[in-house]
Design a protein that fits this description.
By secondary structure, this protein is of the alpha/beta class. It has one domain: 3-Layer(aba) Sandwich (Rossmann fold). It is about 45% helix and about 15% strand. It has 9 helices and 7 strands, in the order E-H-E-H-E-H-E-H-E-H-E-H-H-E-H-H. The chain has a 7-stranded parallel sheet, sandwiched between helices. Strand 2, helix 2 and strand 3 form a beta-alpha-beta unit. Helix 1 crosses helix 7 and helix 3 runs parallel beside helix 4. The longest helix has 29 residues. The N and C termini lie close together (about 5 Å).
Amino acid sequence: MKPPSGGPRRLENRVAIVTGAGRGLGRAVALAYAREGAKVVILSRHGEDLEKVARAAKQRKGEMMAVEGDVSRREDVVRMIGETMNHFGKIDILVNNAGVLTGRAPLQDVEEKDWDYTLEVNLKGAFLCTKYVLPVMIRRKNGVILYVSSGAGKREAPTWGPYAVSKFGLEGLSLAVAAETRSWGIRVNTVNPGGVHTAMRRKAYPDENPMSLPAPEEVAPFFVWLASAEARQVSGQSLDFREWAQSPAGKKYAR
């Protein structure tokens, strides 16, 4: 994906936070944002992965700051927000991408610790990031918040247990935040990327041919579009990457 020929980068001078950005889709979104002119803060529990992403951004002349931390820990989220404000003075975009998937199993076989862990990261983590970003966005009466959902959060998903519940929760959280913040000009949406060639997907579907799936870099333009002025009328929606990719906007952004 390249910026429009001869035109400004789509996210010039915006400040974005992307959680779970050390690998997979989060990494691709963070690098796409940096390429489009955003100053990007990336968060993950895996510091070595973050440093690799930050180096990749720097090689492409992007501006990125890595913060090691866990979205399910309030103190880590507060520290991340504080460091972002100290360095950049504002927050325009929040992508709640951090997520985990424990082993798929019928509900009666799900371990309590796996249930707690999944809900803590996938749902509580998004809540905490949203809670502590909102005051910054409300003061400026501007912002974009995106939640990475899943098809498992929209329909029956046997054996997906806590993961599916966490994604259903994100869909509800997104609707609530969109309604509560509409008057401040904050746009809020959920994104279902569908099957993507990532390690998490391989864990869920070990027999699937990963080459049949889009790479994270092919999905990242959707997140650029949603964060850009071109999607300024889009809020309070649950959106699917594959549907968008076939739309005029998606074809315009195709790599």
